[in-house]
Amino acid sequence: QALARLAALVRPPLAMTSTRAAARETFAMTDAFTTNLRAMSLLALLVGTLLIYGAVSFAVLQRRTSIGVLRALGATRREVLTLFLGEAALLGATGAGCGVLIGVLLGHALVGLVSQTINDLYFVVAVNAVSVPPAVVLEALGAGIATALLAALLPALEAAGSAPQLALARTVLEERARRLSERLALAGAVLLLAAGVTVARSEEHTSELQSHHD
Length: 214
Description:
By secondary structure, this protein is mainly alpha-helical. It has helices at residues 2-9, 19-62, 64-72, 77-121, 134-161, 164-167, 170-213. Helix 2 (19-62) packs parallel to helix 5 (134-161), helix 2 runs antiparallel to helix 7 (170-213) and helix 5 runs antiparallel to helix 7. The two termini are 29 Å apart.
């Protein structure tokens, strides 16, 4: 009854809302913001995957003679596979380390701008520092290394599975690399489309919340 009497006294442009509804709106806005960041992160991982795949495939083609000689001298498929995956892991660890460092520096540099944008458009926040838990750093490093290994797996398996006489033939490796690249290009297009749909839905949800807030 008290709420009904209070609501009757409120006239436009004023409106009465519960704190629970405001909290739900705030949480929905932060969820949409997080979804955008996650989508961009996945897109960056996708681009990195394609770059690493191209680099390892090029390395396999350039080393086809060395691979054939090693296989002819008795190197096992596991040893050849370990060689290329080890290089990919090294690339992944180096790239992930640089990415974490640059990401932390950018976070410290941009936290003020992001906070100001949220204050101007959505709700009041007070963020003055960036806190990066060690678990997040380890997760980022693990994701970078895992992405590199996954991207290098197909070229490494192709190099390890080739017979010595076939490894010395340029056309065989190039033809197999071409077929694999076509399949990965299709998979990349599907993942890119999924990322675009995710970003579009998140932006639509953000626009709806902003209109409701206005």
